[in-house]
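Dear colleagues,

As part of the handover before I leave the project, I'm documenting each prediction I ran so the next person doesn't have to rerun anything. This entry is a single chain, and its sequence is reproduced below.
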Amino acid sequence: MRGQSIPINGMLVDATVDLETAALMLEHVPTFIQYNELAMQSVTIEDFDHMNQENWLMPDEYKQLDIAEYVLSLCDSEAALQRVGEELLMYQARELFDLLRYLKFLVDVMQENHLIWGVGRGSSVSSYVLYLLKVHRIDSLHYNLDIAEFLR
């Protein structure tokens, strides 16, 4: 069915990739998003967002990860420790530690499956924490990029 659109659970999916190959890759991914019947109900965007933020689809080892300790352990200088400490306070104030845990999981899955992702784009490259988690490849500490550009 390569190169055509096919219906899956009421959605039209572009099958430009070999679905058998994609299925083989997915069997190695420990968690995947399934079609959610909630999308068919009348739910506000805010309620849908809140429900999904409480239900991160990742293994328990990532849910239990002390992300602050992990990222701090990646620092190799006093300047890096200072920058990471500042950023982590900003992430914590915005209740984004679960997002950082999920990004760690996502990067690990992409690396394990030899998937390629971009170098980085937009204001996210100003985050040194995201650089240490390998979400992007721009060393914001080296280029003196202001974290305020990302976490306003």
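Residues 30-35 have pLDDT under 50 and may be disordered. The longest strand covers residues 4-8.

All the best with the project,
I.
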